[in-house]
Design brief:
189 residues; alpha/beta; Rossmann fold; 7-stranded mixed beta sheet; two-stranded antiparallel sheet; 4 helices; 23% strand; nucleotide-binding
Length: 189
């Protein structure tokens, strides 16, 4: 399928999810993450979910990272440049929703992309090769291209993999893993 078709399909599927579905599937995804060989890393980037888009609730993952004493990074999006600035999440971090309902840090301690070792990537759909479909703005492809080549990229999805995304671009960055409530997909192995 084409990205445009996949966006429509998965936005529709997400709209059918209840709060309980989202809560239960987000918990299952968090539990699956414990099986990954990533816990020796220190700098973890995570997205805060856009509740209005029924995204994976990352609050439990935040608690998991905090409990393991990891450095947690969250981003602020700059729509003019399609760039993201990454901030260390601390007890004093103030979070505010931007005009697109994305929860973001107001300010804080900035950390360069090059320090990030693991990135949890939001997505609408993904395929068996690790290609992903986001909202189409290119923020994550740009951000992931700034990370080290060995940075671990983990997609989080309520739904299983599509066979193939037909219109993958040269600059699209593939995932290393995608975690669903039932399956851990590993790519690039």
């Amino acid at each position: 399928m084409l990205k445009k078709e996949l966006r429509f399909k998965y936005k529709s599927l997400r709209k059918q999810l209840s709060e309980i579905d989202i809560e239960e599937m987000s918990l299952a995804i968090c539990n699956q993450l414990l099986q990954l060989n990533i816990w020796d890393k220190n700098y973890f980037h995570i997205f805060l979910p856009i509740v209005e888009h029924q995204e994976v609730d990352t609050e439990l993952i935040l608690h998991l990272l905090s409990g393991k004493d990891k450095n947690i990074l969250i981003s602020k999006s700059h729509f003019e440049t399609r760039e993201m600035t990454h901030y260390l999440l601390t007890d004093g971090t103030k979070i505010k929703k931007n005009e697109y309902n994305i929860p973001e840090p107001v300010d804080g301690i900035e950390v360069p992309s090059s320090k990030i070792e693991v990135v949890f990537v939001p997505l609408l759909a993904f395929d068996q090769k690790g290609n992903r479909v986001g909202y189409g703005k290119g923020f994550y492809d740009k951000f992931l291209s700034e990370c080290q080549s060995n940075t671990i990229k983990i997609g989080l999805s309520f739904f299983e993999a599509e066979d193939e995304i037909e219109d993958v671009f040269e600059n699209d960055i593939r995932l290393d893993y995608c975690v669903t409530p039932k399956t851990i997909y590993q790519f690039n192995s």
